[in-house]
């Protein structure tokens, strides 16, 4: 633990202190590196107030959790099926997030931290003897960046509605409606459930079985009970950005 904390101390100095100076306060989870005596002593000697979140009060780190959810949403959309290329997707996610307008601060994270928002992409130019491969790469990067900013804004608004204490009750369905099914209780063959698709479908509503329960017409490859509470299916077709066709191997937990 001490060795890991020493490595983290170097990274902290190299990535944070060297460029921005010492922070007055930092907030972290209770991982062994941050909870170690070495790290706690180092922060005290440097005059940095270090707060640790607790398992029974996750709202203490709510802003970080919400940001993580946004980035997880992006990764689910762009990583491959094996989920082994997520690291190479992080730079685009970081740039898009840091240049996105924040409703709370009325600034972008870049502007709040550095006092300005850098250009992500300039207007396209037409240099002579341009390399065709460079054009393709540039267009692809801009396309991914624009798509990501749109997706991040969609997720931000969706989460804002979710945390609104005055939000409306769940939707009502009728026989024949096409809905997306939450994968919360469905196991797939992908390595990470956190980065897996959050919805499968669409699937058809067969009938209403109770005041708040519906029977779904599930395909044979989804081996789980077909009756679901109203809170599980979703009709919002924007979820197609975070869903996968049911034509893959799944099984109920």
In short:
The protein is an alpha+beta fold and 253 residues long. It has helices spanning 2-20, 32-35, 37-46, 62-78, 86-98, 109-114, 132-163, and strands spanning 25-28, 49-52, 178-182, 186-188, 199-208, 213-217, 227-229, 233-234, 243-244, 250-252. β5 (199-208) and β6 form a beta hairpin.
Question: What level of helicity do the residues show?
Answer: 25-40%
Q: How many domain units?
A: 3
Shape: extended
Distance between the termini: 35 Å
Element-level helix/strand string: HEHHEHHHHEEEEEEEE
Overall mean pLDDT stands at: 75
What fraction of the residues are assigned to beta strands by DSSP? 15-25%
Derived from helix and strand composition plus strand pairing, the structural class reads alpha+beta
Characterize the largest beta sheet: strand count, sense, and whether it forms a barrel: 6 strands, mixed
Strand tally, please?
Answer: 10
Radius of gyration: 23 Å
Low-confidence stretches: none
**How many helical stretches?**
7
Domain Integrase catalytic: 1-126
Keywords: RNA-binding
Biased composition (Basic and acidic residues): 236-245
Protein name: Integrase catalytic domain-containing protein
